[in-house]
Amino acid sequence: MSSPEIPDEIVAHYEQYDEHTRLRDGDGQLENARTRLLIDRYFPPPPAVVLDIGGGPGVYANWLAAAGYTVHLRDPMPRHIDEAMASAHPGSPLASATVGDARDLDFDDASADAVLLLGPLYHLTGLDDRLRALREARRVLRPGGVVLAAGVSRFASALDGLWRNLPADPEFRTILERDLAEGQHRNPTGNLTYWTTAYFHRPDELRDELNDAGFERSEVVAVEGIGWIMPDFEDRWADPANRRHILDIVALTEREPSILGVSQHLLGVGWSPA
Fold this sequence. Notes:
The chain is α/β, with parallel strands linked by helices. Helices cover 42% and strands 20% of the residues. It contains twelve helices and nine strands. The protein has helices at residues 8-16, 19-22, 28-42, 59-66, 78-86, 120-123, 127-140, 156-163, 170-182, 203-212, 233-238, 240-253; strands at residues 49-53, 70-75, 96-99, 112-117, 141-153, 184-185, 198-201, 216-222, 265-271. Strands 1, 2, 3, 4, 5, 6, 7, 8 and 9 form a nine-stranded mixed β-sheet that branches. The protein starts with 7 loop residues before the first helix and ends with a strand.
């Protein structure tokens, strides 16, 4: 396993930004809930071996370990590894947690039942690097194993920007226009809310990358779907009945091609050849 090479601006962003908080607040709650539902749907039952690659501070890794899975966490940020270890559930430790690179994994061939790539693909801005990460995931999966790989929608800046009236800032407008034209997100402003260096996928691109990496039966589903686009989201989410309505409608529309790109996050699903 090689030491991961991370652009300085990405390191600086995650040194300042709290991933735990992001998934507990605002529409991050929808992302969190939907991701867990999709993992439950696609993963084999415990005690399957799961590799959470680019898993940040272990939000999903520790949840899976507590459910009885054998979970190995890798992330390029030492801070995230420390946070994951500190927040592990008593009696349900991670099998391992260390700094690692999605493009060069320290696991044997065919040694895992499922792989999570919820962080790497959108911070690997070059196609060759994304395909390397996906091919590494396929290498370590047993025949018939599943990968869940997240991407950020090509239209995330446009939709979120309009919702928050960010295009009024000429610097954000420049960022947004490049996102739409190239999918290459760059933020030279220093404003944390404008995020950091990333690649934004079209839904069909994410599916094509899974296919090109050798996965079978590849599909792309929405994570938040259309559920995040409401000004009173937090009030509705706080009510159990409304929360159920949001989750139900997102599930009913999660594969609709005409609105897939409205979802801030996309989830690519693929299976290793049996």
